[in-house]
Amino acid sequence: MSWLGKLFEREAPAEQRLAEALVAWNAADYGVALDLWAPLAQAGVARAQSNMGAAFLEGRGVERDPEKAAAWLRRAAEQGDAGGQRNLALCYYEGWGVPQDQVEAARWYEKAAEQGDPDAQDMLSWMKLVGGGCPQDYAGARQWAEKAAAQGRVGAMARLGDIYHNALGVERDPAMAARWWSDAARLGQAEAQAMLGAAHLAGKGVARDPVEALHWLLRAEAGGAGELATGFLREAQAHTKPSQRAEAACRASEPLS
């Protein structure tokens, strides 16, 4: 057998054990998953190290231990594992197992984001928007939000709506704001539902439609964004007839499509 064949022969069992462990983990058989990951992690397999770190971070199959979590995640992150980088960033952001350090958090989020990790892209976008752990950078915030939104992250979609609404590094564009809020709203993001409702109420970027406005504001309130929706909700109710309010309530009770 060639040296390449022998290499694949050695690597195949590790890949198989990683896959088997993931199946067990997803079935909540955490002990089985950890028994498979632990020797691989000790042998230096980055994905297994990352998964061990996540287990200690979440306290699944083992007692929660942020310091052990951070240690495993660092091993994985330094080998370039995107999940390990993202979770190590979270440890620095929250101060779990390491001193709280937003600069280090941003640095590791950026490494994971550059590898295409959507959650890291989403968080990095937010940090650049507010200047947390890195210089405030509206253009960077928008670019990373676009990448995360393209992978389905609804928080990033809602943030893009806010960026265009508030003209943060871009020309104010009510239509683009409403478009992004609509995308997020239809996926259940409550804050975006509130803002889309407000847009329909004012006719900014979308047609003025008090019934559609009330529909989205009712969804937002039910979804936990009542504080944001309250003022708009009162205004929408004041500008609609009882039959229109009933129609809006009916729409709000239907599943999102």
Characterize the structure shown:
With 257 residues, this protein is an all-alpha fold. The protein has two domains: 1-116, Alpha Horseshoe (Serine Threonine Protein Phosphatase 5, Tetratricopeptide repeat); 157-162 and 179-257, no CATH class. The protein is built from 14 helices and no strands. The chain has helices at residues 3-26, 30-42, 46-58, 66-78, 82-94, 102-114, 118-130, 138-150, 154-165, 174-185, 190-202, 210-222, 226-238, 242-253. Helix 3 (46-58) packs antiparallel against helix 4 (66-78) and helix 8 (138-150) runs antiparallel to helix 9. The radius of gyration is 23 Å and the shape is elongated. The chain starts with a helix and ends with a helix. Residues 1-12 have low confidence and may be disordered.
